[in-house]
Specification:
Elements lengths: L1 E5 L8 H8 L5 E4 L14 H9 L3 E4 H7 L7 E3 L1 H10 L2 E4 L1
Parallel strand pairs: 1-2, 1-5, 2-3, 3-4
Amino acid sequence: MILHTVKTSPFQTFVLADCITLMAEEDALLLMEDAVIATQAQHPCYAQLELLSQQGRLMVLEADLQARGIKNNIGKRCSYLDFVNLVIKHQSQLAW
């Protein structure tokens, strides 16, 4: 069970698409920094993120949403404390 953390915008790199492709069914995804832009429905990965959100496996760092003035359309907003708990809950973390 891996916690994948992505920090780059889906408009800058293919990291988010690669991450989603390699995720196992028990893995979770946390969007942070510029990756929070991915919660908007204007890029190719949105449908896959929406599915992860429905499964409860997509989290978005709340501080980064606020810093960019974005209201997330999908995913569970999480605080830094929630982030720490996610790291503790998962066996390992993979930063993209």
